[in-house]
Amino acid sequence: MMSVVKRLPSPSLPRPSRGLVLLLLALCAGAARAHDGAAGLAGGFLSGFMHPLAGPDHVVAMVAVGLWGAVLGQPALWLLPVVFPLVMAVGGALGVLGVPLPAVETGIALSGLVLGLAVALAVRPPLWLAAVLVGIFAVFHGHAHGTELPSAASPLAYSLGFVLATGLLHLAGIGCGALWRGRTGRLAVRAGGGAIALAGAGFLLHVW
């Protein structure tokens, strides 16, 4: 006599639930890795990402780059925000390698002052000169990021973090610079540049 064995359905989760479970597992795994300290990829990336945002001298200069690009228009609108993080990465590598660079803090403070004045006065130099000026200041910012790299952090992840944060600050400046199209907006952008220049002057006096 044959017995009919009913097969019970295998336990399975709906697809949305499966995705939720996988996401929770990934978050738990990430949190566990984060407890390992800054040696992990996440620790290095987050440290690098937060470093520009935590320094007002970095923030004002990077926003000024986006503002100045908006004032100058195409192609400076995209060229300057591309030049800055690329050259900054080079400066960061020099800092990581321990290559000395004199007057780094002074250069960072001057970047806020000079770029802020360029926005406030709507200075329109040749495109190559604007790119060179932005690149020079980017070396100082990058070197500061590199020398302050946590000793246990991943240099590559840290560099990616501060380059991404820098790009977002440039985008913020470009977004504010979109006001340049209107008369009242131009006054607001110039006033913002003046505020950045004053902040840069304050940083410079603090350095001196």
From TrEMBL:
<feature type="transmembrane region" description="Helical">
    <location>
        <begin position="156"/>
        <end position="180"/>
    </location>
</feature>
<feature type="transmembrane region" description="Helical">
    <location>
        <begin position="103"/>
        <end position="122"/>
    </location>
</feature>
<feature type="signal peptide">
    <location>
        <begin position="1"/>
        <end position="34"/>
    </location>
</feature>
<keyword id="KW-0812">Transmembrane</keyword>
<feature type="transmembrane region" description="Helical">
    <location>
        <begin position="127"/>
        <end position="144"/>
    </location>
</feature>
<feature type="transmembrane region" description="Helical">
    <location>
        <begin position="187"/>
        <end position="207"/>
    </location>
</feature>
<feature type="transmembrane region" description="Helical">
    <location>
        <begin position="77"/>
        <end position="97"/>
    </location>
</feature>
<protein>
    <submittedName>
        <fullName>HupE/UreJ family protein</fullName>
    </submittedName>
</protein>
<feature type="transmembrane region" description="Helical">
    <location>
        <begin position="50"/>
        <end position="70"/>
    </location>
</feature>
<keyword id="KW-1133">Transmembrane helix</keyword>
<dbReference type="Pfam" id="PF04955">
    <property type="entry name" value="HupE_UreJ"/>
</dbReference>
<keyword id="KW-0732">Signal</keyword>
<keyword id="KW-0472">Membrane</keyword>
<dbReference type="InterPro" id="IPR007038">
    <property type="entry name" value="HupE_UreJ"/>
</dbReference>
